[in-house]
Amino acid sequence: GTSWRTPTKNELEKLVRCTDRVYNGGMWFMNNRLGLFLKAAGMRPETGPGLEGTGSGTSGVYLTSTLGNRKNTCYALDFGTTYIVVTDTGAWNALQINGYSVRCVKGTKQ
Question: What domain of life (predicted)?
């Protein structure tokens, strides 16, 4: 359908403020009425451990549409059992060629 898109850095930074950091194979984000669960899907490096990837069940990286400061990087929501942050993937030399998760949103950018 129409109106589906990848969220921006700003939108995921707002989302981070809605978590109570409950971790159960992923991260819950809640406000007074609604909730969103992002699975700790791990990632698949460009080169590495085959189809299974790494970090499944313990960490998640969800890309944004906001480009990073280096070539082939972008901002992403990165979380694990003890942390959650929105950061430029270039900070950890992670390129967009790696296999990360994307959670599309519907509507106009905020």
Answer: Bacteria
